[in-house]
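## retry 2 of 3
previous attempt timed out at serialization; input unchanged, resubmitting
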Amino acid sequence: MNRRRFRLLGAALTGLAAAVTLLVSTELFPYHSVNHDEAVYLQQAAMLLDGTLSLAPPVLDSFRPWFFFEEAGRLYPKYAPVPAAMFAVGEALGEPRISLVLIAAGNVALAIAVASEAFDRRTGLLAGAFLLASPLFVVDSAVFLPYAPTAFWNLLFAFGYIRAARRAPVLQSGAREESPSGDSSRASDSSNRRTSAAYAALAGLAIGIAFFSRPYTAVLFALPFIAHALYSLVTAVRRERRASRGALAEFASPTVVRLSITAVGGLAGVATALVYNAVVTGSPWLFPYEAFAPADGLGFGHREILGHSEAYTPALGLRANAEVVRELFTEWVVGGSVGTLLAALGVAEFLRRASVRPSSWSPEFTDAQAKALLAGLFVSVVAGNVYFWGNLNLLGDLADPDDGLIVALGPYYHFDLLVPTAAFAARGTLLVGDRVRAWTERTDHIGERGRSSARGTAAALALATALVLAGATGAVLAPPVADNAETTGAYEDAYAPFEDREFSNAVVFVPTPYGDWLNHPFQHLRNDPGYDGDAVFAVEDGSDDLAVVSAFPNRTYYRYVYRGAWVPFTGESVTPAIQRVDAVEGERVTASATLGLLDSADRVSVRLASDGGVAYYAVNDTSKNLTVEIRVENGSARLAGPGLRSSGDDATVPVADEDEVRVEVFVNDRAGGGFSYRLELPVRIGDDGTVRALSPIREACLSPATCGGEAAYVERAMPDGIRMETELRADSIENATA
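## retry succeeded, writing output
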């Protein structure tokens, strides 16, 4: 294949990769995926564009994003900034997804280049097509996660390493660095050395950046290349010693110089990572992810992150990774099992040729050595991941095949295996095609009619192979696309209140179904690093919300609430709403609520609680709606209202300086069932006795299981008769009526 045609087809494939990634990212993941790490990288990208490595929120706990940890009063992400810096390029251009498009196109281009170096141009083009058709590539290239970006640097390293080795001057055993044949030969050797050194520098810088991005991933990818480098160094040193040129010549050998250049570039990346560690964690040897969760590192034994712990044994590691690898090669590579069989055929053909050609392992770089580097990745990546318990977490419950992030996003810790799989699958496919073509060429003795029939049979076999591969790819790609589409549908419903609303100088409190984190799960609701956007998002956290109000005193306040269970990965939607929040301050704060009582209600009781105590009330009349007032003054809270009487020794509860006053109204019906209303009033009491409060959080709990975050009162979702109307006011005690 000529160079011009190769470049045109390669450009077409990279362009197709860009288009596919843009389509999948915008249509399948408009609100991001079920992996909430995307928000970490996007938040980090915004920080880098703002010129900062950390956040300094006015209220620390109310503004802590997912996977950020505190160091000296500032918040740092647990991840290295390389992927975020790549995403920041698109964000600087006005759309972060531009970065995804460029990275995907770059990975396909590099896959073509690397496979072409190891095999030939037609294999390289087919490998690029197979990479693009791999479900893991399609899905993970369209999300803001670090696996495709890190793979880009790893592939750039592989390309630079192989090119540097290929462009190195060819020296025979005992030969001088320069040929005595004349000036032309010396000029050629000099040019080759410069080209080789340039590619060696590129390889070193690329693997250094990959290490800074994801250290263990880069090490596993580099291991086959490190083994080859050591082999090359030993061979070069022995060659110089045989030539008796002395120790200086050994170190000046072109091979030693080339590999030293690569090593220096790689070590520069390592040094950069250590400097970053020192800035962020205070120690060059303490990585941010370890500062966030000290027991979340590599190795076996006790592993833990955010309360999730596991005794990670070698046996468990082998079992988990065997399942991950099985998923990879049956569900997430091109053609699933069909593609894996073709890749196995390509590897088998390489091993057979290498075993019968000892010259493949000569001191000079050969095609066989390039293929060996790609094949070695199957060993280093698969074996190395056994040592990493993240693959167990990726699977979720080992006994449930439909659990874990792997269902939606695939075995992304093995993303680096896509290119060697695609390359060897391409080689296996071409082997089959070459055998069929050779068969048709051996039909001269059967006449024109026989040759025509053979060519027709070959074409039919080629078409059948393509259809089988395409069908298998479609079959393995369809389930994750369907799963992610269900999640996106649920996200679309959840974010609906934000779509047609423009905020101006607002604070929005968001719920916390997964703990007190921002962007977990609401990745779409992120703050500007300076907390000066039109909308500032804060964790809904009771009395701390008043600290947020104090930090942003001249804004309008809202709550984002929803009704229903938050399980978007099952396709279930919630009913959301954005509710206005009032902030008041006075000697007395009164929150009044009018609550609907059903005709079937025959008994109503009320529970008043604070962090310091509980009081109970009974309702005399259930024939009409109930009106309740929560009155907070003089360090205590009590209830008042028509038909309401205390049923205990004390009708008040103490209120601390920072507290939540909680009211639960239990409505029982004649059939023995019932429901409850729930109000949470965030309050703060100043040194002078002044009470500050926010509009109460309102819930209508038709099921006890949903109370406490998933039973928000959303008027349009309420059954007939269930009604809550609240009002908040503050006044002076002397003017207030009882």
